[in-house]
Design goal:
The chain has 554 residues and is of the alpha+beta class. Among the domains are: 1-31 and 273-290 and 321-483, Neutral Protease Domain 2 (Neutral Protease, domain 2); 487-553, Sandwich (Immunoglobulin-like), CATH 2.60.40.1910. Helix content is 21%, strand content 31%. The protein is built from eleven helices and 29 strands. It has helices at residues 38-44, 48-51, 267-273, 276-288, 340-347, 364-382, 384-393, 420-433, 436-449, 457-468, 473-481; strands at residues 53-65, 70-81, 87-91, 97-103, 106-107, 109-113, 116-120, 130-139, 152-157, 163-168, 192-199, 203-205, 209-215, 219-226, 238-240, 242-251, 254-263, 298-302, 307-308, 314-316, 355-357, 453-455, 487-493, 496-502, 512-516, 519-523, 530-533, 541-543, 550-553. It has an eight-stranded mixed sheet with strand order 5-4-8-2-1-11-14-13. A five-stranded mixed sheet has the order 16-17-18-20-19, covered by helices on one side. The longest helix is centred in the last third of the chain and has 19 residues, at 364-382. The relative contact order is 0.10.
Length: 554
């Protein structure tokens, strides 16, 4: 997901150059609360009514009526039975309404508790067998006010007064507009078919590959197919007066189709700006391994909001300019070397879409690694110094308001520091490993080991610890589960440097590089004073900035 900004320009399409020196980056401006409700539990936990069935496939069919801001459709859910149960939880948020549910031609009854709907199945659900049921739904879905952060439908118009419509629903959930198993732990193993009926003059773009288009006197129906597992929030609808162009990319797994859908009025701008897309693909395949969805292609799709990481259908609204709405999140100048939305949102194809958190408390898996991907893109094209300056520059955006990891089983994300604090944690970790090729192997190994899987932060943490050969348990606990940044306290006495850590969890040990009289040396601070002697009088001391620590001379 893109970053939240505290600026009124986000409420409406911003003009170029609105950033200036007055931009304030806010990664999470919502008040933090530990008062969770029954609805939080129903949404955020693997309830008994979810646990017994394994999602296999969605067949989602939607008709969109732009003038009425109304949708209607059906979703056929295919699933495999894991254990005995006859009650299934499906989620759909108001004001959307379930009209009816059918299984084998028989109408099923259901009860509702807020956004959770409990379907009473009539047939015995035999363990190991696959079944399907179809849910019919309709309504005027929630209109997004500040897409993509608040979520819902964006009902907009292009400069020619034609409808320009898109969905975005990370955080609030895909159930804001269509009925599904709205929890990240279970993805449809065999993908999703998406059919979108729209007025004849518009094109509808979704995930995966276009299979066919049906047409009648007044409407067109676009049939899209995704063959890989996909997270619910990554499924999207985009409608507009689109034109299409594309290219192929010769990547690590062969030929990749790269397709672009933009408003007719922006075709020339897009052909110039989207030249960054294959450059992105080259850099990220180098660092992360093969693009995870060759079978479903890669797309950039213009939308009336800033953009999001919809799987194989990355949405774009950065006004065909470099930076983030023309600004540099790092304030170093390096952020203007690339289009933030193309690079950041595409980075999510590896971290969010390929590797997906199985509880939103671990959303840092998505946002931290993807924020860090901006740094790696710069590293690939401009070198280590550029990458280092950029990621260090983004520290100004860190709030340290609450831990990066949230509360489990209640649909609770951690701090917005999951973006650039996490990126700086990973940058620090790269220094500790002190072997760039080994670090690259770890990043690529993650995407191979957890290919198309949902995982926990603990699984990821353990993998990196094992492959790095470093016990990182205290490192992760310090940076992910507290708001305290390790403080290196030091004092100088002639040729002797004394140093220790403050503000650390019990047992935290992390070496850092200190620059003494212009020369780099490793030191190994702990919670107790340690010392190191040098051959010459110490005239100046500096901890290398690549380590995310606070430094204080005593």
């Amino acid at each position: 997901m893109t970053l939240k900004l505290l600026t009124s320009t986000i409420l409406n399409p911003p003009l170029k150059g609105v950033w200036g020196m007055f931009l304030i980056l806010i990664l999470n401006i919502n008040a933090y609360s530990q008062n969770f409700t029954r609805q939080d539990t129903l949404r955020g936990s693997i309830t008994p009514e979810r646990a017994w069935w394994d999602l296999q496939h969605y067949n989602l069919s939607v008709e969109v009526k732009p003038d009425e801001k109304y949708i209607l459709g059906s979703n056929t859910v295919s699933y495999k039975v894991l254990s005995e149960n006859n009650t299934m939880q499906i989620d759909l948020q108001t004001p959307m309404k379930i009209e009816s549910i059918l299984q084998n031609g028989k109408k099923l009854t259901f009860t509702s508790e807020g956004s959770a709907h409990f379907i009473q199945l009539q047939e015995k659900q035999e363990i190991g067998k696959e079944y399907e049921l179809t849910i019919f739904f309709s309504g005027n879905p929630k209109t997004a006010v500040r897409a993509p952060w608040d979520g819902g439908f964006s009902w907009d118009k292009d400069n020619n007064g034609k409808h320009f419509i898109a969905t975005s629903n990370q955080g609030i959930g895909a159930s804001i507009w269509w009925p599904n198993k709205d929890h990240p732990y279970d993805e449809p193993d065999n993908g999703v078919d998406i059919s979108i009926k729209v007025p004849k003059e518009f094109m509808a773009v979704s995930n995966g590959r276009l299979q066919k288009t049906d047409e009648d006197l007044t409407t067109k129906t676009y049939h899209w197919k995704v063959v890989n597992p996909i997270n619910n929030y990554g499924i999207n609808i985009n409608i507009g007066d689109y034109v299409h162009f594309g290219e192929t990319y010769e990547g690590e797994k062969g030929t990749l189709d790269m397709d672009y859908y933009v408003l007719r009025e922006n075709l020339s701008k897009a052909k110039k700006q989207f030249k960054q897309a294959p450059k992105m693909m080259e850099a990220f395949e180098h660092w992360f391994g093969p693009y995870p969805f060759y079978e479903d292609s890669y797309k950039l799709v213009e939308v009336p909001y800033l953009g999001m990481e919809h799987q194989s259908s990355v949405t774009y609204g950065n006004y065909y300019q470099n930076g983030y709405l023309g600004g540099d999140l790092s304030m170093t100048g390096w952020g203007l070397k690339f289009d933030f939305i193309i690079i950041h949102e595409s980075g999510h194809e590896w971290f969010a879409n390929n590797i997906t958190n199985n509880d939103v408390a671990d959303m840092w898996i998505h946002e931290g690694f993807t924020a860090y991907s901006e740094n790696l893109y710069l590293d690939y094209y401009f070198g280590n110094k550029a990458a280092s300056e950029y990621v260090i520059g983004t520290r100004n955006n860190i709030q340290n308001d609450r831990p990066i990891i949230g509360f489990y089983n209640v649909n609770n994300e951690g701090s917005g520091d999951m973006y650039y604090k996490s990126a700086n944690i990973l940058h620090t970790l790269r220094q500790l490993i002190d072997d760039d090729e080994k670090w690259r192997e770890i990043l690529r190994g993650l995407n191979k080991e957890f290919y198309h899987k949902t995982i926990s932060s603990k699984q990821l943490e353990d993998y990196i610890s094992e492959k790095s050969g470093i016990n990182l348990t205290k490192f992760w606990n310090q940076y992910l589960r507290t708001t305290e940044i390790p403080k290196v306290v030091y004092k100088v006495n002639g040729r002797e440097l004394k140093f220790k850590y403050k503000n650390i969890v019990d047992g935290f040990v992390m070496p850092v590089i200190v620059i003494i009289n212009g020369k780099e040396e490793w030191i190994f601070p702990t919670s107790e004073w340690k010392s190191k002697s040098f051959s010459k009088t110490i005239k100046n001391v500096k901890i290398k900035e690549d380590f995310y620590v606070v430094v204080k001379k005593k």
